[in-house]
């Protein structure tokens, strides 16, 4: 099937996220608008207007009641999903790079960038206490002095946050005490993306060192590593709930195109499908012009979406033959 093309942003896509049911798709970009779409047909349901800078991250809570966004305008904002009304505003000293709800929807976390003399900080707010938002005082604030956080996701039951850092480390931060529970040095360069399996047993990371690694949630022990092609310079990835397939994207950063020889330049990116058990590539999909910045699987595993440097979001529905495919051992 031909992909559904979503055109609602003027600049490159930074993150896309499905809600739990998969009927809505949220997208943010390097422009100040956050969009929400119907995933079944690509119709735009509405926008969340208020940011004045690039929006780096977006998340939606378990029951699709509230939406959380973090922006380069030094703010993290909470929205009513249905009406688009801004419910809360938390101002920061630097850009908000990652954000997310825990599974109860009561606790939010977000991290700020290390810039303008300010260090990277991981903040936790309890939405049940409005005074924390009004006073801009999180119940827990963790400075990350050595390396800034580039991607983060909540762990099972909201007990901890797994964060990927600029130096390639993956850390577990307790949401109660703030201590670092586990540290894993699985990558040699910046981690671009961290995503979890739907059953919350695995977490998978992708890095600028052209590797992608799957780890156990609790121990962060490495399970498998696909052998990526050299043209996938900045892989992103996602894994559906019921298959052993992993899809990865990437490509050469736009700022590096003019400094790279045409012989080795790989500006045209592809989505690559790997089998998680056999660690073998079995398919590629073209489409975006320029690098692919984010990938997300529909919760039912029957479709996926990708956001690229070209400013488009593409919703891909699998053909029936995909579900009958079996990789020969």
TrEMBL record:
Q: Where in the cell is it found?
A: Cytoplasm
GO annotations of cellular component type: eukaryotic 43S preinitiation complex; eukaryotic 48S preinitiation complex; eukaryotic translation initiation factor 3 complex, eIF3m
HAMAP family with a match to the protein in the record: eIF3i
The residue spans of each WD repeat are 6-47, 48-89, 285-315
Organism lineage reads as: Eukaryota, Metazoa, Chordata, Craniata, Vertebrata
Q: Which UniProt keywords apply?
A: Cytoplasm, Initiation factor, Protein biosynthesis, Repeat, WD repeat
Name-wise, this protein is: Eukaryotic translation initiation factor 3 subunit I
What role does it play? Component of the eukaryotic translation initiation factor 3 (eIF-3) complex, which is involved in protein synthesis of a specialized repertoire of mRNAs and, together with other initiation factors, stimulates binding of mRNA and methionyl-tRNAi to the 40S ribosome. The eIF-3 complex specifically targets and initiates translation of a subset of mRNAs involved in cell proliferation.
A Pfam short name = EIF3I
Signal sequence span per UniProt?
Answer: none
Q: How does it assemble?
A: Component of the eukaryotic translation initiation factor 3 (eIF-3) complex, which is composed of 13 subunits: EIF3A, EIF3B, EIF3C, EIF3D, EIF3E, EIF3F, EIF3G, EIF3H, EIF3I, EIF3J, EIF3K, EIF3L and EIF3M.
UniProt main location, coarse: cytoplasm
One GO BP annotation here? formation of cytoplasmic translation initiation complex
What species is given as this protein's source?
Cyprinus carpio carpio
Q: Name one GO molecular function term.
A: translation initiation factor activity
Extract the PROSITE patterns matched here: WD_REPEATS_1, WD_REPEATS_2, WD_REPEATS_REGION
Keyword Signal among record annotations:
no
């Amino acid at each position: 099937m031909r992909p559904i093309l979503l055109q609602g942003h003027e600049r490159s896509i930074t993150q896309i996220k499905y809600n739990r049911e998969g009927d809505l798709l949220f997208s943010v970009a390097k422009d100040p608008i956050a969009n929400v779409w119907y995933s079944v047909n690509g119709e735009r349901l509405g926008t969340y207007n208020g940011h004045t800078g690039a929006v780096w991250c977006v998340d939606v809570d378990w029951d699709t009641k509230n939406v959380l966004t973090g922006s380069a305008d030094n703010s993290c904002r909470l929205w009513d999903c249905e009406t688009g009304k801004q419910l809360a505003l938390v101002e920061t000293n630097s850009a908000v790079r990652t954000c997310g709800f825990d599974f109860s929807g009561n606790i939010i976390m977000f991290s700020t960038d290390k810039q303008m003399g300010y260090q990277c900080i991981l903040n936790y707010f309890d939405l049940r206490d409005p005074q924390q938002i009004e006073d801009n005082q999180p119940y827990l604030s963790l400075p990350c002095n050595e390396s800034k956080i580039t991607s983060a996701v909540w762990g099972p039951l909201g007990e901890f946050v797994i964060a990927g850092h600029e130096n390639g480390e993956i850390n577990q931060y307790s949401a109660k005490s703030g201590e670092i529970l586990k540290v894993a040095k699985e990558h040699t360069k910046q981690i671009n993306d961290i995503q979890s399996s739907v059953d919350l047993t695995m977490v998978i990371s992708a890095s600028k060192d052209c590797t992608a690694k799957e780890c156990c949630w609790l121990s962060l022990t490495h399970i498998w590593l696909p052998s990526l092609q050299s043209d996938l310079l900045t892989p992103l990835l996602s894994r559906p709930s019921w298959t052993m397939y992993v899809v990865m994207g990437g490509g050469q950063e736009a700022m590096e195109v003019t400094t790279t020889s045409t012989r080795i330049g790989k500006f045209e990116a592809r989505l690559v499908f790997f089998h998680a058990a056999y660690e073998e590539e079995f398919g590629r999909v073209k489409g975006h012009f320029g690098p692919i910045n984010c990938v997300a699987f529909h919760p039912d595993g029957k479709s996926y979406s990708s956001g690229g440097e070209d400013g488009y979001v593409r919703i891909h529905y699998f053909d029936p033959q995909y579900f009958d495919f079996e990789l020969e051992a």
